[in-house]
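Before the break, one more example. Copy the sequence into your notebook; we will annotate it together after we see the structure.
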Amino acid sequence: MNIEIANRLQKLRKENGYSQEELADKLGISRQAVSKWERAESSPDTDNLIILARLYNMSLDELLYDTESSDDIRQRTKDSISLTDDEGQSVIFKDGSIEFKNPDGTNACIDKRRIILSIIDAIVFAMTLTAYFIWSVVFDAWYVSWVLWVLMPAIMSLFEACIFKTISKFLYPVFVTSIYCFIGMEFELWHPYWFLFVTIPLFYAIANPIDKFLFKTKKIEKEDIE
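Here is what the structure looks like once it is written out:
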């Protein structure tokens, strides 16, 4: 790690009133790891850089380059600067942009979340398929069990909303449609449960402002994380 960045991390820790032990506790790491960062013996990994930036309420640029202007940062990062942690993950600064890379060159942030989502989607699909055949064959409910396939993308989107902390990613209209179809076909209660569709604009009227508020409080652009 660059000695200037190491000194910067030490300065920020002290300015925010943390001892090495206190900062280590917040990050879930050892005090020795923090000490190594500040002695330029190792670098924070991707997740810890993001947590540090949020903890100090600043962007990654501000975290690593003090109060320099954007033009100054672009000039300094014109020639690529790379920090590599003990596991081989790198943070690359080039042309004013920041990239997180795995040892094989793939994007670290995209990998982690997308891989988790892919695993969850596969599990949800397998569970939906199993439930569909059990419900259809064992309970002879072919006429209504297909609703599970409508519900499936809504469940997948719920996990995505949780992982990316964005409420509006949840496919609420799909969820409402599946519930309405089930109630209507199973219990013949098409009326008055049509009112469920009225809750759709209400959901987005609440979710969108919350998402915008959460986005504004983040100094790190969501697109970099995704």
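The longest strand covers residues 90-94. Strands lie at 81-84, 90-94, 97-101. Try to locate both features in your own notes.
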